[in-house]
Fold this sequence. Notes:
Layout: H1 5-8, E1 10-14, H2 15-18, E2 23-28, E3 36-43, H3 48-51, E4 57-60, H4 62-68, H5 70-74, E5 83-89, E6 92-98, E7 103-105, H6 107-112
Parallel strand pairs: 1-3
Antiparallel strand pairs: 1-4, 2-3, 2-5, 5-6, 6-7
Amino acid sequence: MSIPNDLYGGFVVSKNVIKGIPILYTYREKSSIPQLNGWNVLSEIDDENYISNPNNFSIINAESMYKIAPVLNEIFNADYGTDLFWKYESNVHVGFYDLIEEQDTDISQILKKK
């Protein structure tokens, strides 16, 4: 699948996610840098010490993010302030938990907030 990277901007992604560790947490914030889309992606092993070091993150394009987690492109247009915990069963992503609303959620609910 070809993704128009210039339409999406960059994702700030933990290097652990790039190495293949499952995503545990994503949040979207308004970026002061126009080239970034506001999505931040953390792995299930990232702790406070790890995330406090900016060298532990890379900026990747939409095509690279799609290869890691295609579902993130499905929720790409979620509002700034979206704060999601990723749920798994038998190591397969099965849904999201909205940390703001404190409830299980799905793609349609995530996008409906607009």
